[in-house]
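fold-stage: in
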Amino acid sequence: MTYCVGLKLNAGLVLLSDTRTNAGLDNIACYRKMYFFEEPGERVVVVMTAGSLSVTQTTLARLDEAITDEMADETTSIMLAPTMLQVATIIGDTLSRTRREIIEQCRDLTQQASASMIVAGQRKGGDMRMFLIYPEGNFIEATEDTPFLQIGEHKYGKPILDRVVTPATSLADAQKAVLLSMDSTLRSNLSVGMPLDLAIIEKDACAITARRRILDGDADFMRMSAAWSAALRESFVKVTI
């Protein structure tokens, strides 16, 4: 399992993913879940993944291959697509096709082959957009009413996002929100784990503004986690019924 979350705000995009992959109690590994496709100043696309590694890695390999193909055009390459909507369509189609092929290959096994993705970014002259792509290839988009999207083990980290995140949230506060959302998930589900990958894309930058890997034992993350726990305990004591 994994946990990935993306925020689409007036000021930009904030994206966070863990790196744990769990294929059983004795088979836990670390795999990157956040991938970057970037031509600074022209376009930036970030893809976060959850689900079967065979599906997600094959899908991403095919997207990479399509970008470098001599015959690539706006219908096949996410780096040539004229809009973020078309980018999401290409990725959705590739994910759906890959999933169907792997399911067919494993039809006699009990192995599951499912995956979902969050796709976010902006091209020069276009709007920032963020989509959640389902295993079947269809997708939904983040809106002003719902400015965040999650995939994977999302239930533990959702309450704080519901309470504090709006389109007007600053990028600094948004980073706190996604990190605390992840902290809640880390505490409640062992299938989500460090290190974490954090990326910031400021509006109209069309490039990764900031990128950070947070390792296990990171002093700043531990300090924030401890302060949040203390604040919750203090607030709990003050509440009356």
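fold-stage: in (second)
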Amino acid sequence: MPKTPTPRLTALRFIACLFCLLTIRSEATDINSCHGIILSQARFAMAVADRTPIGAAPISIPTDHDAVFFFNDVLHGNGQVLLHRWYYQDELVSEVTLPIGADRWRTWSRKGLGKRRSGNWRIEVATADGCILTRQALSSNTALPVLTQARELLEQNDLIGARLLVKEKLPEYVAYRSRLEGFLNEDLAIAQIKQSIDEDQLYIADARLTPLESNNRLSNDLKSQLPTLRHTLEAQRNKMNTRTALKISAFELVQRRTLAGGTCPANEAALTEKLSILPDSETLLVSGWSITDRNIEAHLIDQRTGFIHRLVIECPAKMISLSR
């Protein structure tokens, strides 16, 4: 019959297993020191000057710089070498040997990005005998904090705040200028179109949507949204156009009845004043008017849709002279 382990033995086994797990975990992560060599600093940089990394470390793969640097401040490695291994999409594309010339030594390597600006870059820093001192990575999918904040503002319908935030941060995010401009030209543009549609500013929405539809450099995600936006916009424009035409027809009918024995508007100001009784008159702009026989004919631009409506007012037989 097998013996039942004592509580003390069970506890010792648990501690031993925990120690094994911690050991395995420490081997799988960056240790920053090996055989006495210590990396007191290890980071990506956009530039190095006077043996010092310049500016903040890049957050993701730069879209507007040709290269990225990896900088090391090394302690206690005099006479040894470091190896910088650069990987793109997990494929080794470059290995740089960096001799260490003193007990405190600053060194770095540079990697040109070429067309490899989307995906994942990774660097390993190792000793000559293969001990990995650190691993670090850059991904094109890493969100930029400024764009995360700007998208939160869009969700709150604060389009002006989002635009001002990104514009303000452009000098700070020089390495990602195209991504920030992409937000302004795409994400913000879509939000502005949706807002214009919601506010019945359909002519403005069309003016913003049309250039996007002819832009061949848009992201696939944005392109997929355009047909739905166009359908929504046109459906709303046509519905509003029909409603406005019916209102104008009703207005013409009322004028035929009320002007019998009366007078027509004597000038454009008088015509505009008469139009004030028309529903949504503040959105209708008189683009021109003329006298034909006994009728006044005016063209009204609906500032919401951009459509032009024809208005005809029948005047009585004895009509006063009209002045423009």
